[in-house]
Write a structure and sequence with these properties.
homodimer, alpha+beta, 11 helices, globular
Chain lengths: 353, 353
């Protein structure tokens, strides 16, 4: 059973929860907006389901909601940012702003970020840059969940990569993907339901392929595309972690299991000013033509429409802004419990909204 | 049966062949070196097996070996290069040089290239940048061979992506990959031998999965990792083709089947000066530590050693420089025939070299 909640009311509720644990209003609003944005796009794994862990990271002192996010090294079109263990979304927004300014001034802006935390869905940043006529590439490293090719135990995170650009159509092109075959959350769900998982998703503790969800959780989720996905995740770890002074490999701490020190996640943002190559209007015309040709291709059996990256998410978000965000009943119960604990009223909603 | 040919003698032979069809000596040497480099690394699909088609593209006027590779737009840390239908390797080397210069001056260098051709193995460029203490990302688009997710017929090329950085060890990290599950060349070989191909490599003309190599050739090779690989290949096409004014999707012409006009391939080079983020020595120490941790992970059953991207290729190249490049007898026969046709002597070699 799902409950539909107006996006604005849900964002207000989450903002108030963050404020209740001492997060300044503008930051509370930013992080809440990013989480609701993920739910609107149907990316539940990065949505308000994270409220509980985000709040706990704040109350346990692992996220510092009053930190100064500082530009440490400022070098022409690059910069290194120290996130001060602030919310990843906040550090990311500063990085985005710096990257966009530099792209406008120099053509490119490349920003490394260290001492950050989980930054939510990368599409949140990409959509903002694209709306300003820029192309954006965003990467982050993450705590260990995947083996490298040839390995058995988790060594790299499901390090996400996002790329976006304007298309001149309703939906910008936004590829926002983890470098794992599948979100670990899906394996958690299967383990709870005691249903098997497809072959190729994960290995057990000994490194053997498994379709047993519990064995997979004790083992590791696999990189997408074998050695290629593994190699990409490593390259992302190097740009986000090794290059920035953030953690990498084993030194990026778990958001869920490590309460000894902040995560020290690293990010890398690269903004590109399209107008350095051709007028934006010309690019958009070519991009729209490209997307049109793609969508008009002959379709595989059973496929009604060819959708490009970001297109289904954009449609879901439009529907969600109109009809409300669909949340599972169990999640609503968890959120309401958080509301009770922090004395924040749950908005009046109805399943039929 | 393979024949071992000294790398230098093989490069001399290929250089002389290029000169025989009117390629100026320095360019002939550059392209030949790039092809032999691929063979040394064991990437036969991008090695001297391409001599025949490269020569034919020149003699048919599809590659202009005397073109001027021009910087068309010069904008701070970005530039747009017109390759003039020169060899892709030549246009790529100009782009690399421009990218590296800009990275030194500004921290980043981002170079788009249009009116280019097949540029060989991207690792050739990456290794040069990494030797100078830079990180490099290289992309190229390519003629249509893969459907996008949901499609049936080829729409995107096996658009390669390469990323590299120094490791402080013998082998730099060089991830150089096509965005396809497998090189189309492997399916061609299976079709010749009438052996089946693994499931998941390709679809037939109707879009159904197939293990029949001939049906796969008439159908399409698949992107790696499903929608993620498809989305990456599209993003590469946009950066290399849409953004630069090169061909994209259907307007990148086949190197083998289209003799009406030059290919109009597009590339994108992004160089990053590591020292804008930390001293190179500090980065190399961190990268070496990272790679060491990775290699010391527990190994999967049957795995003797965990190798990072570029490490097996580097070892092969070292062995090849010592023992000669291993070429299949049939390829040697083809090369010798080219030698006879263009009056270039095949070097004296022996199988036991």
């Amino acid at each position: 059973v799902t409950v539909r909640v107006p996006a604005g009311a849900l964002a207000d509720f989450c903002t108030a929860l963050f404020q209740a644990v001492g997060v300044p209003a503008p930051v509370a609003r930013e992080v809440a907006t990013s989480l609701v944005y993920a739910d609107l796009r149907g990316v539940e794994s990065h949505g308000v389901a994270r409220m509980e862990i985000y709040l706990r990271r704040v109350t346990e002192g692992m996220i510092d909601p009053n930190a100064e996010v500082r530009v440490e090294l400022d070098n022409g079109c690059t910069a290194l940012i120290d996130g001060g263990n602030h919310f990843g979304v906040r550090a990311g927004m500063v990085a985005l702003e710096e990257a966009m300014q530099r792209a406008r001034r120099h053509g490119l802006g490349g920003i490394g970020v260290r001492h950050s935390n989980h930054f939510g869905t990368a599409a949140y940043f990409v959509e903002r840059a694209v709306a300003r006529g820029l192309a954006l590439i965003v990467m982050s490293n993450a705590p260990q969940t995947m083996p490298v090719t040839g390995g058995v135990r988790p060594f790299i995170g499901t390090n996400p990569l996002a790329i976006g650009f304007p298309t001149g159509r309703d939906a910008p092109y936004i590829l926002d993907m983890a470098t794992s075959v599948v979100a670990r959350g899906k394996i958690i769900v299967a383990a709870k339901r005691k249903t098997p998982i497809p072959a190729g998703w994960a290995i057990d503790r000994q490194g053997n392929p498994t379709t047993d969800a519990q064995a997979a959780l004790e083992g590791a989720v696999l990189p997408f595309g074998g050695p290629k996905g593994s190699g990409l995740a490593v390259a992302i770890d190097v740009l986000c972690g090794v290059l920035t002074g953030a953690g990498f490999g084993p030194s990026v701490r778990s958001m869920y299991d490590d309460w000894s020190k902040p995560q020290n996640v690293g990010h890398f943002f690269l903004a590109l000013d399209i107008e350095r190559f051709m007028p934006l209007a010309a690019f958009v015309e070519r991009a729209s033509q490209y997307v049109g040709l793609m969508k008009n291709q002959p379709r595989a059996p059973g496929v009604d429409e060819i959708l490009y990256a970001g297109e289904p998410e954009h449609r879901r978000a439009q529907a969600g802004r109109r009809d409300g965000v669909a949340l599972h009943e169990s999640l609503v119960r968890d959120l309401q419990a958080l509301g009770v604990r922090h004395d924040v009223l749950w908005p009046v909603t109805s399943g039929a909204l």
